[in-house]
Amino acid sequence: MSEREINAAGIHLLVNTTLRQLHHFQGDTLVRTYPVAVGKPQTPTPTGDYHVINKILNPGGVLGTRWMGLDIPGGNYGIHGTSNPDSIGKAISNGCIRMYNHHIEELFPRVQIGTPVRIVAGASAARTGSGQEYVVQPGDTLWQIARRFGVPLSSLIETNNLVNPHEIYPGQAIIIPR
Hints:
By secondary structure, the protein is of the alpha+beta class. It is 16% helix and 36% strand. The chain has an eight-stranded mixed beta sheet with strand order 3-2-1-10-5-6-7-9. A three-stranded antiparallel beta sheet has the order 11-12-13.
């Protein structure tokens, strides 16, 4: 599958390091959520928008049965299996995203080189000058977010300059006005 076909299919991954979950999406549809291990505080998993740049079958050792390398600057980071399944659900790695071997084996053939990977930290992150930043989670709607934070829907739309409020996506940062 070419990068153009990947983009047309809308295949993408969202990793939430706080929840320690990897979400596999096909367009706006959540295909599956997997538990993962992420970087420990001393070597956190870098947040941001990346892509899968290589894939290796049976890399061996601590990498488990599959490796998907990411284009994260300054290191050799990836999504991979593990020889230590007890680590899943913990912040324990040197920055990589670990999965159970049977989970990475399920995901591996569905992810192609060029697949977008967004890594976020937490459900709500920082306060900005105009309010609190909230990271959209799978299943969220703008209306639900407005109710959760007790703000008018129109204020959310205006503060975030949303042209189409029906098109929010997991991993998107939304400013919650004060």
